[in-house]
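Please decode residue identities from the backbone states below.
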């Protein structure tokens, strides 16, 4: 189902608007990695998936999985639930397993959709550290809704240089989270 929905999304994006990928050459060609991206609306999730050369597995808030039909649909699109208020061990185990299998995991480290800058949570760097997988910072600039896309606003995903997280302390994790924030802010300024 993922491949079918991805094909449809590419067609719709191609017909309704434009999308652009910058620095795609920075993406690791093999092995698992985490893509962290800004999250302003639901459309950035679709555009990010379209711009990646491999399928992506998204962490999504558990509230989306409460409706059985929606939960089934999201799981077929490689999404898995996470409790943002009280993360369980599975919040870390599932993405680590995926990364060790060589999969791509998508995390929105701001934790919610917003047009404002928010402090990033440290989940992405924690998972990267435990999985020994690189983090690829990314930013999304463009429409937040179909209405804005219909106005021919261009959607852009900008990828940054991958980096590894190697630490044993919470203080160093905070430092890597700050580094991720700075890298993502730097990418936003390139737009």
């Amino acid at each position: 189902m993922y491949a079918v929905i991805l094909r449809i999304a590419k067609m719709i994006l191609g017909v309704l608007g434009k999308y652009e990928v910058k620095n795609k050459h920075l993406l690791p060609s093999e092995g698992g990695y985490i893509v962290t991206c800004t999250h302003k609306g639901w459309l950035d999730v679709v555009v990010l998936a379209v711009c990646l050369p491999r399928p992506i597995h998204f962490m999504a808030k558990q509230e989306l999985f409460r409706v059985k039909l929606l939960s089934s649909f999201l799981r077929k699109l490689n999404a898995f639930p996470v409790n943002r208020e009280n993360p369980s061990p599975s919040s870390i185990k599932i993405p680590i397993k995926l990364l060790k299998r060589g999969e791509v995991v998508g995390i929105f480290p701001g934790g919610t959709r917003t047009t404002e800058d928010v402090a990033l949570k440290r989940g992405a760097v924690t998972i990267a550290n435990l999985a020994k997988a690189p983090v690829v910072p990314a930013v999304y600039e463009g429409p937040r809704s179909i209405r804005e896309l219909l106005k021919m606003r261009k959607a852009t995903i900008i990828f940054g240089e991958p980096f590894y997280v190697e630490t044993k302390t919470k203080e160093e994790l905070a430092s890597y989270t700050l580094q991720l924030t700075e890298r993502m802010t730097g990418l936003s300024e390139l737009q």
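Observation: The first helix runs from residue 2 to 16.
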